[in-house]
Amino acid sequence: MIDEDGGVPEExxxxxxxQQQDLTLVSTFQVKPTLEDKFKPQAxxxxxxxxxxxxxxxxxxxxxxxxVKELVKSLAIKIKQKCRDMDFAKYKIVVNVVMGEQRGAGVxxxxxxxxxxxxxxxxxxxxxxxxxxxxxxxxxxxxx
Length: 144
Fold this sequence. Notes:
Elements: H1 15-21, H2 41-56, H3 65-85, E1 91-101, E2 121-128, E3 132-142
């Protein structure tokens, strides 16, 4: 075959096609997580406990509301990052942190969510000292 310039065209590079033929296609869609990939609530509870202990054990309840806001925000970010480091693939992680001043009064907290009981779960833990109460919860929702 002769090209427009009157010469013989170069052979097309088929090395990419040859490489692609060696690939094996695997479906990555999973309806449910495998046992190894499932969120582990006990490990998450331990993670929450360690973050709350290391951050709050030597603290007193801040007098300024902005300090409390920043402390709660930093706790939520730390917990979420450490949870992400545990590599629970395909889980949406939501962290909720509630903190208050310890004055002898009780507090009640509740959460509701529409989820799949077989693959979605949560873990929570609390911290108490003389001036602070803090509750943190991790909600793990599997991405289909």
